[in-house]
Design brief:
Blueprint (H helix, E strand, L loop, with lengths): L2 H30 L1 E5 L14 E5 L1 H4 L9 E5 L27 H9 L6 E8 L4 E5 L2 E4 L2 E2 L20 E3 L4 E5 L9 H4 L2 E2 L3 E10 L5 E2 L2
Antiparallel strand pairs: 1-2, 2-11, 3-4, 3-11, 4-9, 5-6, 5-8, 6-7, 9-10, 11-12
């Protein structure tokens, strides 16, 4: 190979290295720091509407920080979206995750690239150790009615939406619900979400522009 050919090969390799490094950095930022997403379901209406674009803060997963009540979080969807009253374990009301991902390449594809993976967006309602009870269209935490200013005036919380409506949140877990209570598949149906399944906290809405700002 002549000098010109060697120079061209070196230039190509340098571009390849740059592209590989850029991809790796982008994946690291996306997994550990933050990433954009699009709202696809109506369960958080009117707080979040379908088609809106958000920035997710993923440092909550990196640092294993427990979210606070009222935070809007994303998490890996349970493998069972609904647990019947017969199968519900009210002593250990934890969502079922029985996905079988055996090798490192499948895990990379599923957890890092998020190919074939479904995530939900919901609001944190109950924290570890708290008693959550839903009755008469309202939510009670440790016997006290929960103030929910983010709900529409006519919204009630149906206790018939699932089996987990009178439970104590296990340690290391969260009880979550959507603001659109009648159209939300949430902890009432599948149980509490383990902290290790929490992926991010919703941070900023950047589309539409007239609603740009921090999401609460």
């Amino acid at each position: 190979m002549n000098e010109e050919g060697k120079w061209k090969l070196k230039e190509i390799l340098e571009w390849v290295y740059c592209i590989v490094i850029a991809i790796v950095l982008a994946l690291l930022v996306r997994y550990f720091i933050g990433t954009p997403t699009i709202v696809q379901q109506p369960s958080m209406w009117p707080t979040l509407k379908q088609g809106q674009r958000l920035i997710l803060n993923r440092t909550i997963r990196t640092t294993k920080t427990m979210p606070q009540r009222g935070d809007i979080v994303t998490f890996e969807a349970p493998s069972q979206a609904y647990v019947s009253a017969i199968d519900a374990n009210l002593e250990k009301p934890i969502a079922v995750y029985d996905y079988k991902i055996n090798n490192i390449f499948s895990k990379f594809r599923y957890y890092v690239l998020e190919i074939g993976k479904t995530s939900y967006i919901k609001r944190v309602i109950g924290l570890p150790g708290e008693h959550v009870k839903i009755e008469n269209g309202k939510v009670y935490i440790n016997g006290n009615e929960l103030d929910e200013p983010y709900l529409q005036d006519n919204v009630t919380t149906d206790s018939l939406q699932g089996s987990f409506t009178d439970i104590t949140v296990p340690e290391g877990c969260l009880f979550v619900m959507g603001d659109n209570r009648s159209q939300s598949t949430d902890s009432r149906r599948f149980g509490c979400i383990p902290l290790e399944k929490i992926e991010s906290k919703v941070w900023i809405r950047f589309w539409p522009f007239d609603l740009f700002g921090k999401v609460q």
